[in-house]
Amino acid sequence: MSLTHPLTLPPEARTVDHVSMFVDGEFVPAAAGATFPTVDPNTGETIAQVPRADGTDVDRAVAAAKRAAIDWQFTDTIARAALLRALAGLVTANADELARLEALDSGHYLSKAQDLVGAIPLWLDYWAGLADKVGGRTIQVPGNKLSFTLLEPLGVTAHIVPWNYPLLVMVRSIAPALALGNTVVVKPAEDTSLSTLKFAELVKEAGFPAGVFNVVTGFGSEAGASLAAHPDVAGITFTGSTETGRTVAKLAADHIAQVNLELGGKSPTIVFPDADLDDAVEAAIQGFCSHAGQVCVAGTRLFVHTDIREEFLTKLTDRLRSTRVGDGFAEGTEMGPLVSQKQYDRVREYIEIGKTEGTLYHGGGRPEGAPEGGYFVEPTVFVDVPLDARIAREEIFGPVASVHSWSTDDELVEAVNDSIYGLFALLLGSDIKRLLSTARRLQVGGVMINDWFGELPMTPHGGHKQSGTGREEGLEAVHGYTQVKHVSVNLDPSLRAGTNWVDAPL
Ligand code: NAD
């Protein structure tokens, strides 16, 4: 596993000069003037100083969003959709710069960041198209009455975003929020603010009214907690760890805000005995090595049928040996660094724990030739790991997998479901009845069968159990950004003439 190319990005392209937050249509520093550094995880070097927002900045952003909500909720849907489409066009026109910032700040290798940015317009277009197609319904009630519902925006929505997919995770929630008439305040993760702030420039250029879209940058315990606790925030979409999700849900409960929680996972990749093993190996590696394992749906528990275990492990390690891990700006890189020193230390600690809980089968070290100072870890595989081991139960968020063998389907389902998480499962095999019956029995929010994990704007994404509540994407996401108002109209000439009353209790 070695770095095969020298750095191809010139040093001057690895820094960003001027970084401001976006509040009420203007780029501004934090009110207190505080900043914090954001670093390139490939080198550990500082890229830029980012404004460190506190409660005062959050108050300003929420106040701006609240003012803007008065008009935005009644802005007609054609106009809202046109703005979203204009924004999609600007994202495409600025894709190179967005991808550079995403790669620099989050450690996605450049071609991956380009793919991700290239997909962003799909979400904006999807919700632009739906803006005028979702609504309430009429209800058949007794008597001469017209009864119907209106689907209305919540008002100000907060979007608290993790660092692993800064743009995609932000856009997948702000697109429905804006399309359906909400105004938004985004809080990117402290490690990855840069692409979101570039996106804010494009929002301004597209012509969105001031205050409709705002970004406050800063730490979770300061800006994030102030935003979640703000009484004028009516809805919160939080994407991040289960632990922080719990805190955010408690803050939201104090002012009864609606909450969507997209949380962590410990997802299984399940290999049936009749699977194509070459495909299964590729899918398994994508599952736990994509973005260096920093993916909510990462398949970090490999359940391999006992009949094919040895062959699968041989093929897996052969393929892992040729996986190119290194600088995200070098050509041919297949896996970049972890996002930060903190995440690097966390993953290294889990690798040490794994050595005491099971047998290290592959990796465990630092990739040969990886740039000094960067947060690189080899793809790592453990075997002989008990199902109750910490590395088999806790979300590591790094390229670390444990392999578990199984014999019967019942045993498999019981082992997979024995988890606090329930985000996602990947099933690989040939017997479609067996695959589908397993899919039905798993306690997860999403199943892929003989497929890569891929997120799309039209398919719902979210978790069961402690992996979350609510759904992003697809028509299901409408509920997260709207509330229902029931309207009843008496069509009789007088109030009490001839209707079947069910009186409201007095
Ligand atoms: P995190 O929970 O540490 O942080 C997420 C966001 O919450 C950041 O913006 C952070 O600043 C903010 N935050 C932290 N403390 C806060 C507080 N007290 N109040 C309000 N906000 C606070 O998560 P992370 O480490 O950035 O991201 C990794 C986690 O995200 C993993 O658990 C991963 O599974 C999860 N994730 C889930 C999905 C999904 O769709 N289910 C997608 C991506 C990531």
TrEMBL record:
Keyword hit for Oxidoreductase: yes
Family of the protein in this entry: Belongs to the aldehyde dehydrogenase family.
Organism: Pseudonocardia xishanensis
Active site: E262
Gene3D superfamilies referenced in this protein's UniProt entry, alphabetically: Aldehyde Dehydrogenase, Chain A, domain 1, Aldehyde Dehydrogenase, Chain A, domain 2
Protein name: Aldehyde dehydrogenase
UniProt keywords, alphabetically: Oxidoreductase
UniProt domain Aldehyde dehydrogenase: residue ranges: 29-487
Taxonomic path: Bacteria, Bacillati, Actinomycetota, Actinomycetes, Pseudonocardiales
Pfam families: Aldedh
Lineage top rank: taxon: Bacteria
